[in-house]
Amino acid sequence: MLFLRVILNVLLLWIYPAKSTNIDKTASRDARLLNDGNTMPLVTFGTLVPVEDLDKLPEAVCSAFESGYRNLDTYYNEYFVADSIKNAISCGMVTRKELFISAKKSLDICTRSGVVSDLKMTLKILQLDYVDLFLINTPINPSGKKNCNVMDIWNGMEDAKKQGLTKSIGVVNFKKEDLDKILPYCTTKPAVNQLEVNPTNTNIELVEYCQKQGIMVMAYRPFGFTVPRPGVTNPPPPCLDDPVLVKIAEKYNVTASQVIVRYPIDRGVVPMSRSTNMTNIEQNDEINSFCLTDEDVAKINEFNVNRPVYPVKSFTFGPDSKKGTKKEQAKRRYEKFYPLA
Ligand SMILES: NC(=O)c1ccc[n+]([C@@H]2O[C@H](COP(=O)([O-])OP(=O)(O)OC[C@H]3O[C@@H](n4cnc5c(N)ncnc54)[C@H](OP(=O)(O)O)[C@@H]3O)[C@@H](O)[C@H]2O)c1
């Protein structure tokens, strides 16, 4: 019997030699199925940089593609990422099909027909035929415009999907009551809800509600207050050297940052981290060699104080102007919607 087991083990090792030595540590190779049948690469690269760092964005996006990321979340900065996408495809590093590119509806578009025109303009700046995900960025009407009906806008999103301008459609910062204004009446459900999810803003009930509805949650600001945030004084714990995070990290021989990016995944949520530092870009993707246990997740949840890094707020838009170079116009577009970020 023992002899047979030894033979079997040798055979298994011969058939699967790579398993124990060559673990693919990069989570960007994994995908998640959305409720509309499309798939989304798991680890997302966020692009919401401070305005003064916009010029660093093209290089950061190239580094992210080189490092393996395929899921790119844009934030009204299409002009600054378009060439990196085009170059990565034309040099054969990636195919368009492998990429997953998200964009957001301009905040000041409030009509059904306006949604399709807005996405066409975004596609022109991105130099693409379609995006993979188009999002309504926040249910509030930041400009205070009257006659802004979320169901009209959602119908516009459905039109955009039907016309093949986007593969999937979704929302950002939608609470339960906002989702409930769409879910009973829509033909296509939101595939995604982007929410701030991190140790100090766990959003447990809303995440669970979305998951019950089959809506994939994407976690923006996964680092929460663990990293310095401009304008924030007295941040709540944890920071990256917190003993709880360090102890979990040591258990898996990873860094506390990797625990932070892994935490949403082990809650069934897609993390969207952002960095302009190559070491961090790589580290934030190398999170497949371990998974957090339910106990680890529960320990991290204990940091929750329901405090978002920057609460969603109303603001008035800056002016529209076609003056200046394309780059100057693109920078103004970014600055116009940045106050909501
Ligand atoms: N839809 C919305 O309303 C909305 C709102 C906010 C954000 N978002 C999206 O979500 C993305 C992520 O949010 P976020 O920009 O606040 O990102 P984040 O990843 O939570 O935080 C970024 C900060 O963390 C630092 N960092 C990243 N990796 C690190 C590591 N391994 N170790 C130490 N520090 C690290 C970065 O510094 P370095 O650059 O030095 O690494 C940067 O200062 C945005 O870029 C955007 O695409 C969406």
From TrEMBL:
The record marks 104 as: Lowers pKa of active site Tyr. Residues 1-20 form the signal peptide. The keyword RNA-binding does not apply. InterPro entries: AKR, NAD(P)_OxRdtase_dom_sf, NADP_OxRdtase_dom. Residues 59-304 form the NADP-dependent oxidoreductase domain. The active site is at residue 75. Keywords: Signal. GO terms for molecular function: oxidoreductase activity. The keyword Signal applies. PANTHER family: 2,5-DIKETO-D-GLUCONIC ACID REDUCTASE, NADP-DEPENDENT OXIDOREDUCTASE DOMAIN-CONTAINING PROTEIN. This is Jg13083 protein. The gene is jg13083.
